[in-house]
Structures are given as structure tokens and as C-alpha cells.
Write a structure and sequence with these properties.
single chain, 134 residues, alpha/beta, Transcription Regulator spoIIAA, seven-stranded mixed β-sheet, 38% helix, globular, disordered N terminus
């Protein structure tokens, strides 16, 4: 299912894409593209996630921020997908940041040492955007 329409309070367009267990919405801001993930990120969602984020990477040089505050679960395939997307972004010299991921998922990133490979912003997307604009 694909839905497009205005963002919050008349903001920029948002596309919402629903996989089996995860919903992805994409919002284009002036300096950043925000990919919001919610639900459960597992094997069944990896191909869809790769396709959506790679499409964004192909059409913009803006920072890409994955907002994961509503993410409930991520398995090893989901973690691998994040690593793949980070590598893709690095090759394109594009910033790829995880923002607002829940504590239990950040703990997994630390235990697997992926926090040393991925850029993680613990605050909100708004905090990230403000820090980049100042």
C-alpha cells in the first residue's frame, strides 16, 4: 500500500509504505530526508526497505535520517540492512544517521559493536536537523 499526501500541519509531502510487519514513511525536509520506521523490522521487510531508501539515495544528496522511535523489534537481517545502507551512503558521500531508536535496540547496536560503524543520534530528528543547520 502506498499513500501520499501532505505532511503534518501542511508540511511537505509524505509517502507511507506498509510492509508485512513494518511501516515506512518518507518525508522530505529542506536539509534532510526522514525515513520513519515503525513496527517490526525483520527478514520479510529488508528488500522493501533497501528499495525505498536506495530510491531516496538515488534522487537526493541530502542527509538521510532513519527515525526509529516506534520500532519495536529488529532481527539480524534488519541489522544487516542498516549496515548495507550505511555502506551505500558512504560510497555516495551521503550522511546516513539513525535517530531516536529505542533503548533496547540501541543496546543491541552496542552489543554487536554496530554503534562503531553506524552514525547514531540519540535525540529526536528535530534535534538532529537543528544541529546540522546551526
Amino acid at each position: 500500500m502506498v499513500r501520499t499526501g501532505g505532511g503534518r500541519r501542511g508540511g511537505p509531502p509524505v509517502a507511507a509504505l506498509k510492509g508485512e510487519d513494518m511501516e515506512i514513511s518518507i518525508q522530505h525536509l529542506p536539509s534532510t530526508v526522514v525515513v520513519t520506521m515503525s513496527g517490526m523490522f525483520g527478514t520479510a521487510e529488508v528488500d522493501h526497505m533497501l528499495q525505498q531508501v536506495r530510491e531516496v539515495m538515488a534522487t537526493t544528496r541530502l542527509d538521510i535520517v532513519l527515525e526509529g522511535s516506534q520500532l519495536r523489534f529488529i532481527d539480524s537481517s534488519g541489522l544487516g540492512c542498516l549496515v548495507t545502507l550505511a555502506k551505500d551512503a558512504r560510497q555516495k558521500r551521503q550522511r546516513f544517521v539513525l535517530a531516536a531508536f529505542p533503548g533496547h535496540i540501541r543496546e543491541v547496536l552496542v552489543m554487536t559493536r554496530l554503534d562503531q560503524l553506524l552514525t547514531i543520534h540519540e535525540g529526536s530528528v528535530q534535534d538532529y536537523v537543528r544541529s546540522r543547520e546551526s
